[in-house]
Amino acid sequence: MARILLLGLFSVDVLLKSNLTGGVHKVNPSAERHQPLDPKKHKALLKVVVQQHPGTKISDIRTAINKRICELRHKKKSMDS
């Protein structure tokens, strides 16, 4: 559900330039930082998913969001090459 809502709340362009927190790249700290997702939209997404699926861990939702963003980046990268 979070993966579908993510694309309803954020454009693909925004997702390609963002991550959840805007933190430093863990593998390459000198890489360009991504912008954090809008915190209000992010919190709203988490709240809706937990309301619809009680017992779902926030960490699992965040992982699903990060995976979807990574998939979008991989798809764009493969299309560009």
UniProtKB/TrEMBL annotation:
<dbReference type="InterPro" id="IPR018379">
    <property type="entry name" value="BEN_domain"/>
</dbReference>
<feature type="domain" description="BEN">
    <location>
        <begin position="1"/>
        <end position="76"/>
    </location>
</feature>
<dbReference type="Pfam" id="PF10523">
    <property type="entry name" value="BEN"/>
</dbReference>
<protein>
    <recommendedName>
        <fullName>BEN domain-containing protein</fullName>
    </recommendedName>
</protein>
<keyword id="KW-0732">Signal</keyword>
<feature type="signal peptide">
    <location>
        <begin position="1"/>
        <end position="16"/>
    </location>
</feature>
